[in-house]
Amino acid sequence: MSNNGNYKDLGINSPKELFNLETEVYKSKVKIEQSRALIEENRMMILSNYSSAFTGNRRMALSNTEEVYVNRITILDNMVSNSEPEADYIKIQKEKNRLEYTLHKANINTQTLEVSERMAAVNAELVKINRQIMETNKIIVEFNAAQIEANTKLLEGEKISENVSPEEMKKEINSNKLFIIQIQSIIASLSDKVEKVFSKSSANNENLMKNKDEIYTRRNEILENREAIERNKERIEALMQ
């Protein structure tokens, strides 16, 4: 406040205006931190789902595939042909079996490569994001260093108001006005973005939970296939006797 009690002389309409600006900035910060926490939670769930689906379910399913293939070959090998056409037909079925499983593996390779390509693109984007985080940290460190230097000068007895000309005072007042305009602009630009990010993060969280449920359902299906394979093995064993 100036000596005559007029805040406008300092570039501020009222103490309430400054208080409201600070309040809005802190509200944005809290909402952003809330979104960030949810994003981190989602990221950890993504990694968990990825590990469960790719490392867990995928390996179990591929193991089943290999055993089903071996079972098929064993069944065909133990079939008794009573004529040359029957023998030829069994041979054709063996070749068909090999081709069918080879085609299946080729398709799986295609799908796996597509996933790898998308993950490589995601990793490249994460590298850029990490760089942006580092740049933001640099801005914070540099700001803190400048403020520490200003505090040090004050502690050393430097009088900031000594020999200040009217022109310099006006310059500082205009600087305060500019700060207010910049803060108001940032608050306005962040308002919708903060809500959209939080809403998107919440939607992602719901989808991740659904994915997790589906992963467990698929695992049960894999285990059911496993049981069917074991039952077939018992029958194959009897066939070989």
The level of helicity is over 70%
Largest sheet: none
> If you compute it from the alpha carbons, what radius of gyration comes out, rounded to the nearest whole angstrom?
34 Å
Number of domains: 1
N- and C-termini, Cα separation:
102 Å
Structural class: mainly alpha
Following the backbone from N to C, one meets helices and strands in this order, namely: HHH
Number of strands: 0
What value does the average pLDDT take? Answer: 89
The unreliable regions are 1-5
What does this structure look like?
The chain is mainly alpha-helical and 241 residues long. The chain has one domain. The chain is 87% helix and 0% strand. It has three helices and no strands.
Main attributes of the structure:
241 residues; 3 helices; rod-shaped; single chain; disordered N terminus; mainly alpha
Write the layout of secondary structure elements.
Blueprint: H1 15-77, H2 84-155, H3 166-240
Helix pairs in contact: 1-2, 1-3
What is this structure, in a nutshell?
This protein is mainly α. Helix content is 87%, strand content 0%.
